[in-house]
């Protein structure tokens, strides 16, 4: 699946400030259920609002909710960039 | 009049204004208690509906869903699952917020599926216009199978609508929003066969709670354990499927009744975030706010503290002079009133601290601080969420340790609990103040800095520093595996509501006074007893012995009385304890009298001065000037050298900076960690550090 390889390059952690994407998939055991319930679900939109020094944690808008997560969690969520 | 007390549960996500709604509905008609066995606050308030009907409203802790990941959240599930609970609600009110309706409705659909009659409150309607949102309430009511009250807790609007809906709760539709069993029909069919009389959704909740938290009592469903046949990741995948199904339902519903016109929206969040979360200014502003908090705690609060101090002293004096002399009067004046004064004196500082913390939390700023500090704190094995406990620790470690509950990662939470008592709590302050005044010269260094002020500041820095260093060491040595779960909502900025802030400050202060107060008061009474009674001839005949000794000296009656009191103390139970531990503490530069104060301080640090006051027989602890001059004159009997010198003073300051001297904190740590292991590690670990550091300091400076 060559297309998937390209997606692998992009996670929430690779987004730049103001960039948006759509969540593709993630390994469910690595993601807290609370975050899933806040809207981290395949197909939902995500935007990087801001990041703290060292690019960690990340402040994102996911499915309309404003949430901060750590880089190590963000790195596990594959996305497709939309802008 | 079939029922005149309607039981209502108030449920909602954090940051929806749930507590403001509660405050509006109940006014100051609230009671705060604890859930049995745990220290989660249980808030109950009453609200009059009609002349014959009252509602008993329970404000449940904020939760994002019915899948608990913390102690606070599990309280919600346990109440809603157990029909036999005395507080099991007749009606549930789910509070949501107009801007985050989508996410808030997730919890709403779960509550509906439990089969409890549910009212939906859509709060913060005052923001609709600014955000370009419009709602079609009748459509939403039909789709969500509920009744909706549109409210604005900021403007106190819509509260009557809630009361009206509560009165008509019997007409609320009861059917669920979703059919959970569709996520895995085969599995749910099996469940249904095994438990034909139970709600499938409740069974499902019981089975899945273990995945994240695991604290729901299982007795209502005997044998359900055999159904946890799926692995935890399989169950979690099903939970994800459930969440997707719920959001699909919610999105379909909102498409019909919720419109946002983005062009009309104004963006305050973006502007404030750019400044407050800036990678330089963000930190500058945060430290500025910290400085302001400390200024308030140590400067502004000294005025009411002095007032409380003198009031209690004169009250004790008045009691002594007015009531007939006797054991009871002494207990009242020296034990109880002095003990109460020791608690009340901390109220101004604690109230100031909670005033700032609740303003910062209400405004939404605290989440930004967590965001800014997370990376830095993680280097020490802590979390961004450890910042609030560490700041609160400067008032009192007890509320600080309770504030660690929202740290998801157990290791980070445990380390925060373990190191919080290093921060300089307000109970250390009086000890620091008197010793600094005694041994540090009141002079300027480099023209501007006052030496005494600098010493005090260094002690605060030492507190934070040792908290961070020990966190770093604990992080490297503790072998606890826990996933780095860290999720925090960045709520909208809001102007804090004065009413909420004041109620919060009142409550927090009250719970401190009662929780810590009980222990401090008990210790004061025990201390009074141990210092007022002693075994053997010497204690009983103190008066004659002293009088015989001073026969040839020209002394006033007052001086003789003081000498008698001092002699009695030496031969009282507590005096014997002091004499026994003297060899251990001599290398630190202390004598047996300081030893007594040190020993009693293990109950609570603030009794140090009271104990010294009793020991140096100046009668009242509140006459600081007299105690100070008395301490300054104190000499070692054998050598004739002064007891309080720079070396012994510094040694004492360092001992108090490190030692774990607070029974209330140990009790809270035991409750929060559910084991004696951690409080004992704190007690012996911190006190050992204190001993070694004080020893080194004294031996070097001697």
Which characteristics define this entry?
heterodimer; A: 83 residues; alpha+beta; SH3 type barrels; five-stranded antiparallel β-sheet; 5 strands; globular; B: 702 residues; alpha/beta; Rossmann fold; 3 domains; seven-stranded mixed β-sheet; two-stranded antiparallel sheet; 12 strands; 8% strand
How would you describe this structure to a colleague?
The complex is a heterodimer of chains A (83) and B (702). By secondary structure, chain A is α+β, with helices and mostly antiparallel strands. Chain A has a single domain, classed as Ferrous iron transport protein A (FeoA) (SH3 type barrels, Roll). Helices cover 19% and strands 35% of the residues of chain A. Chain A has three helices and five strands, in the order αβαβββαβ. Chain A has helices at 2-8, 33-37, 71-74; strands at 20-26, 45-51, 58-62, 65-69, 77-81. Chain A has a five-stranded antiparallel beta sheet with strand order 4-3-2-1-5. In chain A, a hairpin with a 2-residue loop joins strand 3 and strand 4 (65-69). The longest helix of chain A is centred in the N-terminal third of the chain and has 7 residues, at 2-8. The two termini of chain A are 23 Å apart. Chain B has three domains: 1-265, P-loop containing nucleotide triphosphate hydrolases (Rossmann fold, 3-Layer(aba) Sandwich); 281-477, no CATH class; 505-701, no CATH class. Chain B has 31 helices and twelve strands. Mean pLDDT of chain B is 86; it is low at 214-219. Chain A binds chain B through residues 28-30, 32-39, 41, 49-50, 52-54, 56-57, 59, 63-70, 72-73, and chain B through 64-65, 67, 69, 100, 102-103, 106, 211-212, 233, 236-237, 239-240, 243-244, 247, 269, 273, 277, 279, 367, 370-372, 374-375, 384, 408, 483-491. Strand 4 (65-69) of chain A pairs antiparallel with strand 12 of chain B, so a sheet runs across the interface.
């Amino acid at each position: 699946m060559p297309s998937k390889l390209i997606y692998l390059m992009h996670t929430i952690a690779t987004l730049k400030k103001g960039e948006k994407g759509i969540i593709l998939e993630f390994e469910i055991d690595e993601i807290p259920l609370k975050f899933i319930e806040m809207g981290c679900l395949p197909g939902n939109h995500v935007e990087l609002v801001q990041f703290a020094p060292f690019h960690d944690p990340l402040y994102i808008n996911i499915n309309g909710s404003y949430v901060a997560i750590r880089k190590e969690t963000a790195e596990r969520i594959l996305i497709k960039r939309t802008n | 009049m079939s029922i005149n007390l309607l039981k209502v549960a108030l449920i909602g996500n954090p940051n929806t204004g749930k507590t403001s709604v509660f405050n509006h509905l109940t006014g100051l008609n609230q009671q705060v208690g604890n859930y049995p066995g745990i220290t989660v606050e249980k808030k109950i308030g009453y609200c009059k509906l009609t002349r014959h009907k009252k509602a008993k409203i329970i404000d449940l802790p904020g939760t994002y869903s019915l899948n608990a990941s913390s102690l606070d959240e599990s309280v919600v599930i346990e109440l809603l699952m157990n029909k036999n609970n005395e507080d099991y609600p007749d009606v549930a009110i789910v509070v949501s917020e107009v801007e985050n309706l989508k996410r808030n409705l997730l919890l709403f659909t779960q509550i509906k599926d439990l089969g409890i009659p549910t009212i939906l409150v859509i709060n913060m309607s005052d923001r609709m216009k600014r955000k370009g949102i419009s709602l079609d309430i009748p459509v939403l009511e039909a789709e969500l199978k509920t009744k909706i009250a549109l409210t604005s807790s900021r403007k106190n609007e819509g509260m009557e609508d809630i009361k009206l809906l509560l009165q008509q709760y019997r007409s609320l539709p009861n059917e669920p929003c979703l059919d959970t069993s569709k996520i895995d029909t085969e599995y749910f069919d099996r469940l249904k066969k095994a438990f034909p009389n139970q709600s499938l959704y409740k069974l499902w909740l019981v089975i899945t709670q273990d995945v994240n938290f695991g604290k729901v009592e299982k007795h209502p469903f005997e044998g359900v354990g055999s159904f946890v046949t799926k692995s935890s990741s399989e169950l979690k995948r099903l939970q994800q499927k459930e969440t997707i199904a719920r959001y699909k339902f919610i999105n379909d519903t909102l498409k019909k009744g919720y419109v946002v016109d983005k062009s009309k929206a104004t963006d305050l969040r973006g502007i404030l975030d750019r400044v407050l979360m800036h990678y330089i200014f963000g930190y500058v502003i945060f430290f500025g706010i910290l400085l302001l908090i400390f200024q308030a705690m140590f400067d502004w609060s000294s005025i009411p503290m002095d007032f409380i101090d003198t009031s209690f002293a004169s009250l004790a004096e008045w009691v002594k002079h007015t009531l007939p002399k006797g054991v009871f009067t002494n207990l009242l004046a020296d034990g109880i009133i002095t003990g109460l004064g020791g608690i009340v004196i901390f109220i101004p500082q604690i109230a100031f601290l909670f005033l700032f913390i609740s303003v910062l939390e209400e405004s939404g700023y605290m989440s930004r601080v967590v965001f800014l500090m997370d990376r830095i704190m993680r280097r020490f094995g802590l979390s961004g969420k450890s910042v609030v406990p560490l700041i609160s620790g400067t008032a009192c470690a007890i509320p600080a340790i309770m504030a660690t509950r929202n740290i998801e990662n157990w290791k980070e939470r445990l380390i925060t609990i373990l190191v919080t008592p290093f921060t300089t709590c307000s109970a250390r302050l009086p000890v620091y103040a008197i010793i600094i005044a005694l041994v540090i010269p009141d002079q300027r260094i480099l023209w501007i800095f006052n030496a005494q002020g600098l010493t005090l500041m260094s002690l605060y820095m030492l507190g934070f520093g040792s908290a961070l260093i020990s966190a770093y060491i604990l992080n490297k040595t503790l072998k606890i595996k826990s996933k780095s779960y860290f999720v925090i909502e960045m709520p909208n900025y809001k102007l804090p509501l004065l009413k909420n802030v004041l109620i919060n400050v009142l409550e927090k202060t009250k719970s401190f006074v009662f929780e810590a107060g009980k222990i401090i008061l008990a210790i004061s009474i025990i201390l009074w007893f141990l210092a007022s009674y002693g075994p053997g001839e010497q204690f009983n005949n103190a008066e004659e012995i002293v009088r015989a000794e001073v026969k040839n000296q020209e002394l006033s009656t007052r001086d003789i009385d003081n000498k008698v009191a001092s002699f009695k103390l030496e031969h009282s139970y507590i005096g014997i304890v002091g004499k026994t531990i003297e060899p251990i503490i001599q290398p630190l530069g202390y004598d047996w009298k300081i030893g007594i104060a040190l020993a009693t301080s293990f109950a609570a640090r603030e009794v140090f001065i009271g104990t010294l006051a009793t020991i140096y027989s100046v009668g009242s602890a509140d006459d600081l000037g007299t105690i100070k001059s008395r301490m300054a004159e104190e000499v070692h009997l054998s050598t004739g050298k002064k007891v309080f010198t720079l070396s012994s003073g510094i040694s004492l300051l360092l001992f108090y900076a490190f030692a774990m001297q607070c029974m209330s904190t140990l009790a809270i740590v035991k409750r929060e960690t559910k084991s004696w292991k951690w409080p004992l590690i704190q007690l012996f670990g911190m006190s050992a550090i204190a001993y070694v550091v004080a020893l080194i300091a004294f031996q070097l400076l001697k």
